[in-house]
């Protein structure tokens, strides 16, 4: 019968737990509410599910897709997205290192970077197709173009923000420029680099899907465009849903890696 | 015997818009084992004098010698700055070894010395910790050990205590002073804090407003082993008055 008195600490921990349960519950409620409402509106024919599709139709479509080779499409898009992401991140970072190293190069190239950054890369679509051909290459190229300028600019600004006192300290120890780069600039920019990677993960999806809109014969972007053209909204919605899941998955992978690498914080 | 010698040193900065004389005909020396403090009004070019002494910038005219040879950046000089500038991604041990790493010194003797310093000054148990896990005072001590690990002939301290809160500052000040004295090191400190200068210095160099000139040189002979004891000495305020008048 007697209820044990809780200590302040226990009360506090309990309130923390309650808060986080609440957040999770509301999150789940929004998700269920959204799909539930969608289904109800479709079921009562308040909305036309030929145009809007509905959760039940999407599930049916997903089942159909699973038995009819959706994995080819997923693999195609994943391949384009990840390869483009890796090329853009590696090459972009190398360019950033070069620009950090040479002040002249940095000053010369600055206006070009600014212009290229604000240029909508999709405008280069026709040029890319003509140059590298219609196919996966063009899509990867598009992904690289979308990611690389942002990578150069963000990584470089991370390098330039490095604590001047630390550079002074290394110089006073007699460090060479290469040592300043490897001992200070690179490891010091790791947190910044991880956030660049997070941005790139998002952009790489934009690039891959946009590339597939332009030119493709397989992939999730292809399915979406195709579905739109033949008015199969179920296919459009189902593909979009898969895309959401994949993007979230990739983000989680990056976040886990970040946590491992940036232990010192 | 003077380790560091500045002779008629001047420094002029060039920028796009103007030419600024930062240091004007400065001469003084630092003897072996001495703790010399440079004070002056803020923005007078104190840090420039220190950078010159460390060979980080070249003077426009005049000579700077370390052990009789023109100064250059190398292992003979150890720097300590206002912020501890520990590398957050390195453990305390790795931070302390930074200088040895930069100079590619794989000598076990040098390594052992660094470990001894960590043990002696109570950081050995924290050697696997990251800087963010240490208090401000401990971080500054770690920074000093990193500097000492290179066995510098001369220590240059640039406002090394200014970023700390008052309580920690007193502790670190005592701490650093006793470590430097017990390791028998020669030190040159720059500060805007007059009482800090008096509590630490064997000798004080007072600089004038920009461009920095040597206004006066004092040999401080206050009793008291630690900076804290010195602050309690009756003559402390006399010294404070004298230098304060000099500066303003």
How is this structure best described in words?
- Chain A is an all-alpha fold and 265 residues long.
- Chain A has two domains: 8-47; 62-261, MetI-like fold.
- Helices cover 83% and strands 0% of the residues of chain A.
- Chain A is built from twelve helices and no strands.
- Chain B has 248 residues and is an alpha/beta fold.
- Chain B folds into two domains: 1-76 and 155-160 and 186-226 and 237-248, Rossmann fold (3-Layer(aba) Sandwich), CATH 3.40.50; 88-152, no CATH class.
- Chain B has helices at residues 46-53, 92-96, 98-102, 108-120, 136-148, 166-182, 194-200, 227-232, 236-247, and strands spanning 2-14, 19-31, 35-39, 61-66, 69-70, 77-80, 154-158, 186-191, 203-207, 214-219.
- In chain B, helix 5 (136-148) packs parallel to helix 6 and helix 7 crosses helix 9 (236-247).
- The radius of gyration of chain B is 18 Å and the shape is globular.
Topology readout:
The complex is a heterodimer of chains A (about 260) and B (about 250).
Chain A: H1 8-43, H2 49-52, H3 55-67, H4 70-101, H5 103-118, H6 125-132, H7 136-160, H8 164-172, H9 177-188, H10 190-214, H11 220-229, H12 233-261
Helix pairs in contact in A: 3-12, 4-5, 4-7, 4-10, 4-11, 6-7, 7-10, 10-11, 10-12, 11-12
Chain B: E1 2-14, E2 19-31, E3 35-39, H1 46-53, E4 61-66, E5 69-70, E6 77-80, H2 92-96, H3 98-102, H4 108-120, H5 136-148, E7 154-158, H6 166-182, E8 186-191, H7 194-200, E9 203-207, E10 214-219, H8 227-232, H9 236-247
Parallel strand pairs in B: 3-8, 3-9, 6-7, 7-8
Antiparallel strand pairs in B: 1-2, 1-4, 4-5, 9-10
Helix pairs in contact in B: 5-6, 7-9
